[in-house]
Structures are given as C-alpha cells and as structure tokens.
Amino acid sequence: METSYQHPSPEGYYGRFGGAYIPEMLFPNVEELQARYLQIMEEPAFRQEFNELLRDYVGRPSPLYLARRLSQAYGVQLYLKREDLNHTGAHKINNTIGQILLAERLGKKRIIAETGAGQHGVATATVCALKGLECIVYMGEKDIERQAPNVARMHMLGAKVIPATSGSKTLKDATNEAIRDWINHPHDTHYIIGSVVGPHPYPDMVARFQSIISEETRWQLKEKTGRETPDRVIACVGGGSNAAGAFYHFLDEPQVELVAVEAAGLGIHSGLSAATTALGRPGILHGSKSIVMQTEDGQVVEPHSISAGLDYPGIGPLHAHLFDSGRGKFLSATDEESVRAAFKLAQLEGIIPALESAHALAALDQLDLVNGETIVLCLSGRGDKDMATYMKQLQMTNGANYE
Ligand SMILES: *Cc1c(COP(=O)(O)O)cnc(C)c1O
C-alpha cells in the first residue's frame, strides 16, 4: 500500500508516533470521539455548515498575498498565506469552529479547554458564544496574571476562566485540570484541544480542520502562477497545527519542501529554548507518543520562547514523523532573529505579524534559496497581541530601521 503522510493508522500512529496514552477513566470519552469523528466530519450537512462559517464568520478564504518587496529582498516569489486576517486574528479559529460543530452533533452541552497564553481560550470562548454553549477555560494562575487582555476577552465572551493553582501554575497544570474535569463529566462535555497534539483522534481531527489552509493555497497559487505547488512551504511549529494545515495537501508531493520552524528561544543550547526536535527525544506528552524535551530520567523540561504560542515542550506526532522520516526540514529561530524578522515584514510590507509567525519569516535567512523559486509562508497570526514586546524592542533600539 502507498503510504500517505496525511493519514495516521487506525490506532492513530504516524510512523512510530501518535496513539492514545490516556488514563483508563478517559477511555469512554476518547473512544466515542474515535468512533464518530470521521463519520460526522464527512456528513454533507456538517461540511456545509463548516464551510459557511469559515466563509461568513471567519472571513475565508484568507488571501494568498505576493509580498513584492520582501520577495525582492530575498530574490524569490514569496506568497504569504494570510491567516492573520481571520476573525480573532489567527488560524486557531479554523479548528475551534470545526470542533464546536462536532460537539453539537455529539450532543455535548458543555465545552472545556486549556490555554497557555489565552489565544486558544479566546478562540474557544468565541465559538461557544456563537453556539450558545457553556465554556470553561482552565488557565494557569501565573498565565492569568501575565495575559490579562486575553482573560478579559474570554470573560467578555461569556466564558468562565478557572485558575490552575498547582505545580508551576502554567499550561501543563491547566491541562491536568482540564483532563480531570473531562473525567468527571464523561457524558455532557467536549474537550477542545487547540493543536495537533493529544491522544488519537485529536491530531488527525485538528489537522483535517486546519487543512483548509493548504486546500485554498493550491487553487490560489494556480490562479496566480498557473501551478498548484510551490517549491517550499514554511510554517512555525508550536504544537504544529498551522504547519499541519499549511503542509497538509502537499504532504504527499515530495517535490514540495516542507520547512517547520521551531522556537530556539535564547539559543538552542542556552537552557532557555523550545526547539523540540533539536533537544528532545521520543516520549509521551499529553496523551500521545512524540518527541519531547525531557531530562535524563524523563521529566518534561520547561521550555522558553518569546512567543507564547511556541512555548511548548513537544510537537504533534505528525511532525515527529515528518522529522523522523526526513520528509520535513526542521529549523529554529531565536527570539532575537524573530523580532528582527517581524520588524522587517512590518517595514517592507506594512504587515505586523504575530511573534509566532515571525519565526517562520526568520527562517528565510537560514535557507539556501534558489533565485526565483516560489515559496508559500503561513502567516499564522497578527501582531496586535505582541505589541508590548515590540514596544520594548523599539525602546531598546530607539526605533531602529530593519529594512
Ligand atoms: C497558537 C499559535 C501558534 C502555534 O500553534 P500551532 O499549533 O503550532 O500552530 C502559531 N501562531 C499563532 C499566531 C498562534 O496563535
């Protein structure tokens, strides 16, 4: 049989990564999803409502924009896939729309989620308001303090934000609380996971919802250039959902190079990094087997990145397999390189990117680019949420010019 990178095995394995490593108490919840997600997602009525909401509520298709001045600077044809123009400012809404429609069809009345920086919490609170479903977001106590604007957004959208007060009081602890909640509410609650991570079927389900990114890219590129496939696709990787979506319809086209960019933080070997493939090894994190940053004896290492969305000690199992098999090229960009790349995009194109997306842009400086090649870069989100960080940089450099 031809092997496809798109589809995991029936047990949810991409190569040797994936699966469902969960406490027995969660079996009923996860098995229900495993049994029904594909059938529900393939129903014509589901597809129709999903596509209508993506169009009329999210604002899709997101433009594929030829960045002329940035292209000129690199001697390439660089197209930006503008996920930053989506409602709520990033790609995350594609997934939460899909999962809320799924939850409705499973008859769930209560939605839970965990969030670190609050971006996924906001995307979840948004779709719960849209559908009139109860929304509970678990968030580390420390993150609640650090991310006040997103906490306010969630409250305004009608969600309840519950602080996780154990351990380091961050994402990991919020995830534990969400899992505990789900165990206690097996019948009426759906858990919306925000990236291509977690036990099977989440990585496949989220990749399918995000695959709209590359589905659109193919016809948009055809319209603009006459060909459907670029030479390269570049995307940043936290858990890996925007990259999975941007790669999806090119995964089985080996002539398209897939470039995944992780956050190197202060430097891969600085002790303050989130470059999972460079630093990690196989392990189990959040219910699936993947590559995980861990100590000798298997304790998960606290990651660091200037961008909250990439500050994660693992990657989804699809990406672990792309790395392991050599199908994907994995690079990393430091905090400083990414901030510089953000200023460059702002000043050459008039677009202020999210810090996460700036990591993908920074990779342009590391690649051996072929003159005139066609590149699609996933601009996963907009930079409004990162202005405090950018303002610090402006103060430090006296408003320096990055052209
Ligand atoms: C959350 C986030 C990411 C990282 O998540 P992935 O699942 O790796 O895509 C990247 N960019 C933006 C703008 C985000 O909000």
UniProtKB/TrEMBL annotation:
Domain Tryptophan synthase beta chain-like PALP: 59-381
GO molecular function: tryptophan synthase activity
Record GO cellular component, one term: cytoplasm
Role description: The beta subunit is responsible for the synthesis of L-tryptophan from indole and L-serine.
Gene3D superfamilies: 3.40.50.1100
Quaternary organization: Tetramer of two alpha and two beta chains.
Keyword Ribonucleoprotein tagged: no
Cofactors demanded by this protein: pyridoxal 5'-phosphate
Modified positions (N6-(pyridoxal phosphate)lysine) in chain numbering: K92
Name the record gives this protein: Tryptophan synthase beta chain
PANTHER family: TRYPTOPHAN SYNTHASE, TRYPTOPHAN SYNTHASE-RELATED
Enzyme class: lyase
Leader sequence segment: none
Family label: Belongs to the TrpB family.
E.C. designation(s): 4.2.1.20
Protein species of origin: Flavihumibacter petaseus NBRC 106054
SUPFAM superfamilies found in the cross-reference section: Tryptophan synthase beta subunit-like PLP-dependent enzymes
Keywords, sorted A to Z: Amino-acid biosynthesis, Aromatic amino acid biosynthesis, Lyase, Pyridoxal phosphate, Tryptophan biosynthesis
Catalytic reactions on record: (1S,2R)-1-C-(indol-3-yl)glycerol 3-phosphate + L-serine = D-glyceraldehyde 3-phosphate + L-tryptophan + H2O
Listed pathway(s): Amino-acid biosynthesis; L-tryptophan biosynthesis; L-tryptophan from chorismate: step 5/5
